[in-house]
Each structure stands twice: as C-alpha cells, then as structure tokens.
Design goal:
Catalytic activity: 2 GTP = 3',3'-c-di-GMP + 2 diphosphate
Modified residues (4-aspartylphosphate): 53
Structural class: alpha/beta
Shape: elongated
Domain Response regulatory: 4-120, 155-270
CATH superfamily of the largest domain: Response regulator
GO molecular function: diguanylate cyclase activity
Distance between the termini: 56 Å
Largest sheet: 5 strands, parallel
Mean pLDDT: 90
Strand content: 15-25%
Bound molecules: 3'-deoxy-guanosine-5'-triphosphate, magnesium ion
EC number: 2.7.7.65
Amino acid sequence: MTARILVVDDVPANLKLLEARLVAEYFDVLTASDGRSALAVCENTPVDLVLLDIMMPDMDGFEVCERLKANNRTTHIPVVMVTALDQPSDRVRGLKAGADDFLTKPVNDLQLMSRVKSLVRLKNVSDELRLRAQTAHTIGLQELARADRPDEPGNVLLVDGRASSQERLLRALKPIAEVAVISDPQAALFEAAENSFDLVIVNANFDDYDPLRLCSQLRSLERTRFIPILLVTEQGSEEMIVRALELGVTDYIMRPVDPNELVARSLTQIRRKHCNDQLRASVQHTIELAITDDLTGLHNRRYLDSHLKLLIDRARARGRPLSICITDIDRFKLVNDTHGHDAGDEVLREFARRVRATVRGADLACRFGGEEFVIVMPDTTPEMAAIVAERLRLMVEGRAFGISQGDTVLNVTASLGIATLRPGDDTPEALLKRADTALYEAKNNGRNRVVAAAA
Ligand code: GH3
Ligand code: MG
C-alpha cells in the first residue's frame, strides 16, 4: 500500500523521526512545521493522511483539524492527532474537531503503522466511491452527496458478553443512537446480516470466544462488509488491536471507556457510514439510469445486450431452456400521425405497463427501440413462451388504451415473435434474429398474432 502522508509538527526532530519511519515503509512523506503551511499543503496537493501535532504555536492542532474538516476540498482526509496530552478530555476535543484517531507520544511503531494503514485503506474506499459519484454528478445526473448534512441518528449493534458493561455503554450511546444489545457473538452475526446497522461495537470481554472471529466474519459477509466495527479492548492489548485493524476493524477504544470518547468515536463512524452509503446509492442510481429506458422505466437495449449473453450462458451451463419474445406495436405510426407524438408516448408507457404485468419476476423486459419490446424468459420452454406471448397479445388487444386528450381511447394490437435457445448454436444475436424473423412473419400474416421461430 502506498500513500502520501503529511506530518505536521513544530519540532524538527519529531518531524525527522516520523518521516524516517514512514519512508522506511515506503510511504511518500511531506512535512509542515506549522498549521498554516499544513492547510496550504492539503489544499494544493492530494494528501491521503495527516499526522498532526496538537501543541503548536500560532495555530494548534485542534484548529488545523477543524479547518481541514470544514473545507470541502480537504474534509475527507483522515487526521491522526499525535499528542503528548493523554487526557480523555483532549481526545474528546480532538474527536469533536473531526480527528479520526490519536497516537500518544512517544509513538509506538506498531500502532503507527497499523493506524496509518487502516485509515489509508478506509480512505481508498471512500475515494473510489467519491470518484464514481463525481462522474454521476459531472454527467448531470444528480446532486453529489453533501458532507454538511445534519446528522441522522445511527443504528448501533452492541455485542457485549457482560450485563454490567452493556448497561454502561448503552447509557452512553442512548442520546445519539438506537442501540440493539446482544450477548451472544454468533447470534450477533445473524443480527448484523439481517438488519442495517451503521455501527457494530464489539466489546472484547467474552469468556470463551475470540472477539476477532466475529470481526472477521462481519468483514467477510457480503451484507456486513461495509459496516464500521468499533472494538472495545483492555489496556495493553496492542497485539490484538494490530490484528483487529489488519482484519478491517475500523476503530478501537480502551477500557475504562470514557463515555464522551465512545460517543465521539461512534459519531465519527456513523457519519462516515452515512456518507459512504449515500455515495454508494448515488453510484447505484447512476448505473440504473444508464440501463433504464427513460420513457417506460423498462431496461434499455444496452442492458439487454450485456445481460442476454449472461442469461444464455447460464441456461446452457445448467441445461435449462430459455425463450425470448419480440413484440412490436401494429401500425404505431398511425397513432403518432393521428393523435400526436405525446399520445404515442402515452401508448408506449401503457404498453410497457402491460408487458410488465404479463411477465414473471425472473423475466427480463426491455424496450428494444421505438415501439419494439423484448422479453427474455429463463427456464421457459417454447410451449410456455407461446402461452406468455398469447397472454400479452390478449392483454393489449383486450382493453383499449386511454390517452389524456379528451375521452379518446385507442384500440391497439401487437405482433409477437418468439424463439427458444437451440442446443449449441445460439448467440444473443442469432436468437434475437430468429425471434425477429418470426415477428416479421407475424406482421406479414396479418398482424395481431404470435409466431414461433422454427426450432
Ligand atoms: P408495423 O405494424 O409494421 O409495425 O407498423 P408501424 O407503424 O408500427 O411501424 P413503423 O416502423 O412504420 O413506425 C414506427 C413508429 O414508431 C415510427 C416512429 O416515429 C414511432 N416511434 C418510435 N419511437 C417513438 C417514441 O419514443 N415515441 C413515439 N410517440 N413514437 C415513436
Ligand atoms: Mg410497429
């Protein structure tokens, strides 16, 4: 892992020391000896992490951190405060300023490296998400998630083997989160997978269970992979902390737990989770827009082209049938010519609704172009496909289409061509071509009918 790290300290010897250690681990290191130049570096250079001294003349570390977090261009850079101060109140002050973690001077090598690596890893994930969301934003699809939204309450799962500490932690977290408490770590895994928590707090106090097992299981399950984990550990359990961070545990706190520190750390994680969720949703939304037809909300041709190949490969691999149906509205040009293009659009939307109502959940319905639609039906024999197509034909013919101008209703019919995957020789193009030929035949034979391609 390589990353660019900015070390900020007013004492040259401290700068040299940290720089040497980080360079030895192949990090790219920048240095600054006061708050203002640190801010300038972050503003002008991509920095992946800041190691920030607190006690500095002129502008102290708390203020530097606050300014970094208040600036949209630097708010996402993780900040680790390096401090000789070791009072819980200083930590809380730092966390409130937006710091992601603390290292106490003299800095322990193991802690330095595990902290830096874990925060850089987290930042890489957020960066990737931000980049994708930015692309969505650039192509004008939607507003980029904003960092300055008001806090939403978090959902926290507290996994704790002891009733007394459960009660204490619960009391501390009450004001900022909905908390579910569970004593059994294995049950906790299911609980986490079934619900959507913003944070899992694991108290390493089980009698005969390794808490890191739960952490690693949470990291490997698809459903829980992105949930932040806060580990509560004993003083002096550095080994466990290093292993935990390597496993992907997001943060830790030492016993005796200071309630304010617990709240501040939890809020940091909950905020980051909300922000990443929003970025992820925005990426998802962009993908959906790219594969959805605007007018009807069905999948578009681009999606069909890529997905049909997968469905065909899967059907082949499993030795299952697969059928497709192409349908085209009859004399649709007449609708446009007589009632206008908007009325035509309304007919297309209603037609799409009827297509959707005809097919099963596993079927893929797409607008192929203009007034042509394709339905892909996995696990469907030619006989079943003929029944589905006939049902759709009747759904269209059976009830007139209303359009919003006055009381006008239109009688609409459609022609349909179906084809079924042949053993061995069907590509998506070949399958579509055979269905299209059948459709052409349906048109030629008088429209408003279903024709099946020869097997
Ligand atoms: P056929 O029975 O042979 O299919 O006759 P048709 O009139 O349906 O076929 P043709 O291909 O001649 O005309 C299709 C028409 O569909 C022409 C085109 O303007 C119209 N069309 C394509 N896309 C849209 C759309 O998004 N909205 C509207 N309103 N019309 C569309
Ligand atoms: Mg047509």
